[in-house]
């Protein structure tokens, strides 16, 4: 099992705003994809779509306000199904630190390399969205390669 | 042992340009840090500095023109020493694909999360540097957090 790991810092005491960006349709649409729907409470499924290439369905496993969110991928690319995406948030010295993990990949396939880079650009999008209100969600997301 | 993995695509048939960006002082200064010195042939050591916080010394283990470069970290933060950084380059359908690995981390510490995100921004800097001549090397690099 291999994991994708990232860490960003959002300026200011923004754990509530980061949590909202991870747990509301409006927030998620501000940095990941405009095409998001479904519920975001524990046990509910959030559907993220990236037309025309498909998307991911995430079941919310944990949702602790201002601190932690965990999703399990229940539908999407075969490499993703069964993996987990976790977000740990804390405030420290005027920053809001977000530790990210997309864990449980079966193999370090080339698609995992791609997703690691792509997650970084979406995390930077999340940072920009919370800091300034301007993210780069799909379909206006950052192009990292031929795989978009 | 855990690894940081990334994948970018540079537009065009640019494997020679990517290789030059990884193996010449001028190239490395265009996307990673302006403060780079040393030799870049196999067995030589390249010194990357990020004033005022330190840097990394990399011994070149492999250098296969247009295809592959491998460095071993011989000095720097303790978590980095002994790890390896590899770059695999190939051209495919009008793109130059770069597979990156920073492998051999002893533990998935928080600093590794940070380095993963930071590597992604430097890979995007490499992409920009080769595609358009404009990278974002230190000290003008992208700030991802309180750890810079």
Automatic annotation (TrEMBL), chains A, B:
Residues 16-130 form the Activator of Hsp90 ATPase homologue 1/2-like C-terminal domain. CDD domains: SRPBCC_CalC_Aha1-like. Gene3D superfamilies: 3.30.530.20. Belongs to the AHA1 family. This is Activator of Hsp90 ATPase homologue 1/2-like C-terminal domain-containing protein.
């Amino acid at each position: 099992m291999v994991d994708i790991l990232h860490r960003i810092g959002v300026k200011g005491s923004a754990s509530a705003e980061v949590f909202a960006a991870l747990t509301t349709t409006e927030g998620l649409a501000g940095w990941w994809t405009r095409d998001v729907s479904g519920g975001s409470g524990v046990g509910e499924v959030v559907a993220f779509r990236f037309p025309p290439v498909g998307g991911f369905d995430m079941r919310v496993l944990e949702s602790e306000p201002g601190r932690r969110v965990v999703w399990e991928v229940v539908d999407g690319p075969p490499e993703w199904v069964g993996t987990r995406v976790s977000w740990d948030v804390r405030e420290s010295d005027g920053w809001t630190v977000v530790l990210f993990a997309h864990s449980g990949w079966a193999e370090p396939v080339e698609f995992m390399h791609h997703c690691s880079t792509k997650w970084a650009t979406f995390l930077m999008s999340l940072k920009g969205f919370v800091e300034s209100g301007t993210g780069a969600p799909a379909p206006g997301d950052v192009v990292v390669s031929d795989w978009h």
